[in-house]
Amino acid sequence: MIDLTGADLIGSITILVLSIFLGFELISKVPPTLHTPLMSGANAISGITIVGALLVANVELDTGHDVVAAALGFVALVIATINCVGGFMVTGRMLEMFKSRKDD
Amino acid sequence: MEWMRHASDLGYLVAAALFVFGLKNLGSPRTAVRGNQLGAVGMLVAVLVTLLRMGVGEGFIGAPLIVGGLAVGAAIGALMARRVQMTSMPEMVALLNGFGGAASALVALSGLVSFDLAHWTTLDPAGHGAVPIEPAWSVFLVAAGASSIVGWATFTGSVVAMMKLYGTFRRNLAFPGINVVKVALLVVGVAFGYEIWASGPGTVSVVGIVVSASVLGILFVAPIGGADMPVVISFLNSLSGVAAATTGFVVDNTALIISGSLVGAAGLILTAIMCKAMNRPFIDVMFKAYGAPSGGAAPGEKRTVRGYEAEEAALVFDGARSVIIVPGYGMAVSQSQHVVREFAEALERLGADVKFAIHPVAGRMPGHMNVLLAEANLPYEQLVELDDINPYFSECDVCLVVGANDTINPAARTDPTGPLGGMPILDVEKARTVIIVKRSLSPGYAGVDNDLFYRPSTMMLFGDGKAKLTELLAALKEL
User: Fold this and answer.
1) Do B116 and B24 share a structural domain?
2) B91 and B79 fall within a common domain
3) Are B330 and B461 contained in the same domain?
4) Which residue in A72, A19, A82 sits closest to B96, CA to CA?
5) Residues B362, B357: Cα–Cα separation, whole Å
6) Residue at which a domain ends, from B64, B83, B102
7) Is residue B296 part of a domain?
8) Are B54 and A54 in contact (CB under 8 A)?
9) Interchain proximity B96–A40, CB inside 8 Å
10) B225 and B198, same structural domain?
């Protein structure tokens, strides 16, 4: 599971730094109307940790230590899923209101 | 399964690209709906790729946990998203944000707890524990420490923020030297992180890092209040991205690294945009307790104010050519956005020009008022932003304020050193008549008395926003 040495680590750090720059450039002038939906949508995307939760929850329950780790992974999976599903749905609900008004 | 790893990394790249387009599209009114959908599709891709990778790789050995976790989480998430009132959106966003931080921290904690598992210690020739730490474990341990600090602080901070928005945690807790304590907690957290890296995760160091980070999160948000809340939530949103990115190093996963840092950076920019809208430096928001006493208006001075009846106020609207409505948090609390819209329509039928003045931080979230008024089906063109509406107040006959206070308080100009000092405000005081619907004279979130309430050109209508506006509407129709 862990293979972060040498070239791999440098690669990951490169990805990290470039993504940070990309994130800075993505958001420039956003009308205040969209501040809340944007925040809420970005929040849902940070629920990507659901992938990490899936990875740590995928363990067989046998030894004592495993149970604790798996339980933590399970809780992480539940709340990460709440974050994703709830986040995107709430954002959609907010935006739906702007949309329905335009159709009038 | 080297090929599967590469294939899944390509899948994550697709997900990351969808997130990039999603975030970009969320920033523009025309494309926002699609942006949100792209983000959701990206998340689905990331989850499916992960499941596929696990199925081909080690297999779904934890299938019950995984299926159960996804199902329970999706059900709760969907239920919460459906049930939540539009007025409670800020609390909801804060809570979900806390969940994101906690999930990242729990993944790291799960990794730390299972660190000395048999299949991991095979790397260690001695076969016991984590004594000689290999470079790969160093990265893992450092990342797990960082993720713990950021993730737990994000979680507790978001929960405190949610409670503050909800009203159960109203006091802006602050004590002398709180900033020193915050820095000390951070240092302690980092020290436990070092301990985890140097001698492997032990009970003391793991519990220590969780506790110090959690207390740090509480103390970080506790002194902050009022108009600074949106900024804090945006910053916490950025932190939840950082937590996800560091967790990406814990589980060695590019999807987390890319998406987490995207959100972290984008959230930081959004935070800066909000600070600018309030004319408050970020450092002040973070480290100066909101509403700290500042001398200001003489506190001993007792002023009285007369409350008016809805009928009297309705007369003022008779013959008004131009009306500006200023909504605030009070409109959200009393859920009066629909009555406000009906009232505006009634005024228009009487021949008045009605505009809404939207302060960038009105309510408890940027865009909070826009969301509520959109729910009430108000046309977009009628909502005017601060800089565009301010010149019109001097020409306006009546300005109707519904539950706004700090955003119209002239103290922002007259008392530059006060808690509101320097914040741009709506020039409500320039209107010929100001009618303020408010529950009481109590100061706003900032704790500053509002001189506007006592002026001769102001009529105060005391009561619940919805009730008062319904009365006002009825009185207007009888004219």
Assistant:
1) no
2) no
3) yes
4) A82
5) 10
6) B83
7) no
8) yes
9) yes
10) yes
**Residue range B302-328: mean pLDDT, rounded:** 83
Rounded CA-CA distance B69/B160 in Å is: 26
Q: H or E element: which one contains A51?
A: helix A49-57
Task: Based on the residue annotation, tell me whether B406 is a catalytic residue of this protein.
Answer: yes
Query: Mean pLDDT highest for which of B116-120, B127-131, B399-403?
Result: B399-403
Beta carbons of B111 and A20 less than 8 Å apart: no
Percent composition of chain A: helix, strand, coil (DSSP 3-state, to 5): 85, 0, 15
- The string of pLDDT tens digits covering residues B359-404 is 877 877 767 788 888 888 888 778 888 888 999 998 899 999 998 8
The ipTM assigned to this model is 0.90
Walk across the sheet containing B322-327 and list its strands. B383-385, B353-358, B322-327, B398-402, B433-438, B458-462
Using a CB-CB cut-off of 8 Å, the residues of chain A touching B44 are none
Domain residue limits, chain A: 31-103
pLDDT beyond 70 at B135: no
DSSP string, B217-231: HHHHHTT--GGGHHH
Instruction: Indicate whether B153 and B54 sit together in one domain.
Output: no
Contacts of B142 by beta carbon, 8 Å cutoff, 6+ apart: B193, B197, B249
Q: How far is CA B125 from the centre of its chain?
A: 49
Nearest by CB to A23, from B77, B244, B262: name it: B262
Q: Does residue B370 sit in the same domain as residue B274? A: no
The secondary structure of residue B57, as a DSSP letter, is T
DSSP string covering B79-124: HHHHH--GGGHHHHHHHHHHHHHHHHHHHHHHHHHTTT-HHHHTTS
Q: Which residue has the tokens 């720059």?
A: A21
Same domain, B279 and B357: no
Rounded CA gap, B33 and B29, in Å?
8
Per-residue pLDDT, A65: 54
Average pLDDT over residues B2-27: 89
List the structure tokens of B4.
Answer: 């599967």
Residue A29 DSSP SS3: coil
**Is the CB of B237 less than 8 angstroms away from the CB of A39?**
yes
**Residue A12 contacts B where some CB pair is shorter than 8 Å:** yes
User: Which segments of chain A have a pLDDT < 50?
Assistant: 1-3, 100-104
Return the closest-CA partner of residue B265 out of B241, B281, B231: B241
Average pLDDT over all residues of chain B: 84
Which structural domain, as residue segments, surrounds residue B469?
310-478
Residues of chain B found within 8 Å of residue A62, distances taken between Cβ atoms? none
Q: Are residues B247 and B185 in the same domain?
A: yes
